[in-house]
Amino acid sequence: MNHSPLELLADIVLKKKKVIIFTRNNKKIIATLRAFDKHFNLILENAKEIWSFRQFENGLKFQERTIQKLLVRGDSVILIIEN
């Protein structure tokens, strides 16, 4: 089957599935995809944003926060994975 990326995203929105989004600022977002446009701007619900940072004495640390509604600009999206 030959599906365009936009068709795959439309299918995810219709089925109300969660996605994992990798962004340019080295953050990951796990959320329900609600809408998108041709520039891959994304509207997300119940998003969990996860990022890591290095502490000198303890090594790599992870932090996360929850956001009810989130708009992600398309030029910061690297990869979208269906969860």
State the end-to-end CA separation.
Answer: 20 Å
What percent of residues are in strands? over 45%
- H and E order: HEEEEE
Structural class: mainly beta
Radius of gyration: 14 Å
Shape: elongated
> Biggest sheet: strands side by side, in what order?
4-3-2-1-5
How would you portray this structure in words?
The chain is mainly beta and 83 residues long. 12% of the residues lie in helices and 59% in strands. The chain is built from 1 helix and 5 strands; from the N terminus they run αβββββ. The chain has a 5-stranded antiparallel beta sheet. Strand 2 (28-36) and strand 3 (42-55) form a beta hairpin. The longest helix is centred in the first third of the chain and has 10 residues, at 5-14. It is elongated, with a radius of gyration of 14 Å.
List keywords for this structure.
83 residues; mainly beta; five-stranded antiparallel beta sheet; 1 helix; 5 strands; 59% strand; elongated
Topology:
Layout: H1 5-14, E1 18-23, E2 28-36, E3 42-55, E4 59-72, E5 77-82
Antiparallel strand pairs: 1-2, 1-5, 2-3, 3-4
Summarize this structure briefly:
With 83 residues, the protein is mostly beta strands.
